[in-house]
Structure formats: structure tokens, C-alpha cells
Amino acid sequence: MNGITTTTHRPKCVSRSGWLAVIARQSYREARSTAARNWRIGTGSRRLLMSKVETVFKRSAERVLGWGTPVTAAYRLSSSGDEYLPPYNRELMLRYALKNAYHARAIATKVACTVGLGYSVEADSEADIKALTDVLENETEEESFYDLLMRIVADMEGCGHGFLEFRRNRVGEIGALGYVPAHTCYHRKDGRYSQHWPTSRNKTIYDKFTGAKHERFSLLEFAYPASQIFPKYPVPEWLAALNVMDLDVSAIEFNTAFFTNHAMPRYGIVIEGDALKSEYELALKNFFRSEYNGARNAHRAVVIQVNKDTKVHFEPLTKDVQEASFLQLRNANRDEILSAHGMMPRLMGIVVSGSLGGSGETTGQLQIFKQATIRPKQSYIERRLNRAFAKLGFKARIRFKELDVTTHSEDMRFWADAVQAGLVDVDTARAGLGFEARSDVRKGYELANQLLALKKELQSLPLN
Description:
Blueprint: H1 16-23, H2 28-38, H3 43-63, E1 79-80, E2 83-84, H4 90-95, H5 101-114, E3 119-122, H6 126-136, H7 145-159, E4 161-168, E5 174-180, E6 185-188, E7 193-195, E8 204-208, E9 217-223, H8 242-261, E10 267-272, H9 278-291, E11 311-316, H10 323-341, H11 359-391, E12 397-400, H12 408-420, H13 426-432, H14 439-460
Parallel strand pairs: 8-9
Antiparallel strand pairs: 1-2, 2-6, 3-12, 4-5, 4-9, 6-7, 7-8, 10-11
């Protein structure tokens, strides 16, 4: 895989068109500075050269959408016109979920554990709960608020940020909520957002959500912390594993080519004595080209007619087994991808050799995953949503359901010990286990508490 070239002076044997192709593999900024150093030309010619550099680079960036191409070709200019452009191709980053199974599974798992478990609306009164619930259940384009959250968080995990659209009606009330694809949204220099598809010239301008009534269409951004290198756009936590995914794709393609084309020959055909007749030699070549390659042609036999003074035998060219190195490479790539996602191996169905494999180890990994990866994301999304709804005048709050890392038997033992110790009553324990409260038990506890309070009051009275 080609990387970024660091050559700064054009060799004499390389033409200017070839040198432009080399520059196109670099980022736009490097290409412009390199071109300015290598050609001492006038202003008009310099502008023409810069446009050629950008054109060649855009063509190379389109090739990035294929498999196994350099990630560095996705970098772009930092600004263009009234927009700040992202430093990476976000559509390409979303496509990486189609290239690596562990990467796709890690994203799906984090989305499901963050917002896929459901949510509850909490408030001090039923009226406040109903007011917010009516807005959330006002489905747009046949999507519920739950579906919107799933798509927004999928964008966050896939390319670093996601957007929730607020749409007001003519009287200034929130009419509906919507989803806008993150890879089509750009930060504008005036503080707003613009949304457009790469193949369309039509732009939709959105206000940055502040809760003001004059904002007819506004976007609320959910994003990872902005990068120190690219302050305008956030980067997902797995960005450092991009090259590892490309390496894994290269390993798969190499193995595929090996089984299809025998990229590494195992045996050589040695002919001693008289040479084979031309028709026999041609038939032998055709056999190995058409009827020997591929998994379906394994263990095929070939009949060779030779003279009595001719000997044909096969000599091994490679004696070492190389499949193990590919397996080790893929396992190392897998571990690095999961580590970049903050995923535990057990969650992906991977059993690490040497581990105990008991329920305690699984529970421990789930607890770490919940506290270090999932719960911070839930808290961030809850804060963003609740602040936005508070600006709109709603008094209710949203709270996501947390990942349950314990078994039902462990929960029963916990609540039984709590009841036995007198920390909670039976109804509270039943609610913790997901059962409905028993009214007779509740009344019994209320009567016992009233009798206890009456007893204390009688004891405090003076004796005559």
C-alpha cells in the first residue's frame, strides 16, 4: 500500500504530469506547498497548477472508496468558500463498516448498548411527562424518536458526530424531530451548518440549535471531543485503527489471490532427459492454468506422456508453512481494532487463550465496558438532550436504560440480602427485579409504620 511520499524535489527523469500524480497522494496542504517550492513560475501559472493539483487529488480521493486504497488520499483542504471542510472523507469512514466484520460489530454493539436498550421520560408531574412525550412520539418520515437516536449514534460511532434536526411550525412550536446524515453536514464560517450531498449543488442552511423561536430549522450536534489537530470536526475513537483495517483487507485479498492464482508457487516441474513435445508442454500449461487453480480443483490428477528417457518430477519450492503467519496477522489486527473501540473480547464472542472463561470474568469485562465505554456516552447524550429540551421549555428529562451486567440469580440474591438487612421493603425489591408491587404488602408496611410512629408518640407523653 502506498503511503505519503516525502520527496520535495522533482527528479529529472520524472515528468510534471507524473510528479502531479505523486503530489496527489499527499494532503492538499502538502501538495500546494510542494508545488510552490518545485516550480518558480508566475502567479497565473501558479493558480493553474494549483487547480491541476486539486483535480488530480479529487480523482485519487474517488479511488479511496475502493478496497485497500491508501487512507491518506481522503484528506482535503481545511476550508472552501463559506464552509470548513472535514480533514477526512466521512463517507469513506462509514464504508469501513463494510470492510471489516469486527469493526462493524463493534459499532453495532456500542449503538445498541448506548441507546438501543430504551429510555424513560422522568418529571415531577404527569403533565410534564406528557408534554415531552407528545413531541418525541410525533414521528416524522415513519421514524420514531428511538429510530432517530439509533441512526444518530451510529453516525457518531462511524464518523465522529451525528445531528438531530428540530423543525418548528409557523407558530414557533416544535413540530417534529428529524435525522440528517452526518457526512452531508458541514460547519459554516458564520456558525451555522450547511447540508448537501456531494453530487448535488443544492444546499440547505441550518441554524445551530440555541432554542430561540426564530430558528425554523436547526441542528443539535452530538460529537466526540474535537481533535487537537482538526478543531472544527471531531474524530471517532477508532480513527487510529484505519491503517490496521487496510492491512487486514490486504491480508484477505492476498489470501484470496493465493487460492485463486497461487501467488506463492509450492512446486516446480523438473523435466530431465529429452524435452517434452510441444503439444504435451502446451497441454500441461493449460492444465495448470485452467484446471488446477482454485479450491474446487484441489487434488486433481494429470496424465503426462513422456519418452522412456524422459523423467518428470515435482520439486517443492517452499517447505515452510505460511498460513500461520496470516492467521497471527489477522488476530493482531482484530485485537487492535477492538482495543481502539474499547470493546472487550468476550463481547465479540472471542475466547482469549489462557483465560479462565468463568462467569466472573465475563461479568468483570461487562462491568468495565459499561463504566468506561457505554455509561459516559449515555451521560453525554442525556445532557445534550435534556439541556435542549430545557431551552424549549420542557421540564421533563430523558434517561437511558443502563446495561445490566448481572444475571437474574445474582439480582435475586442482592435484593434478598437487602430486604433481610432491613435496607428496603419487599415492594422495592420486587420493583428492582421487574415485578409489580403487591398492594397488600404495601398496605401492611404502611400500617406497621403508622403503628411504630404511634408507639413513639405515646412513649414521649409524660406519665401522670
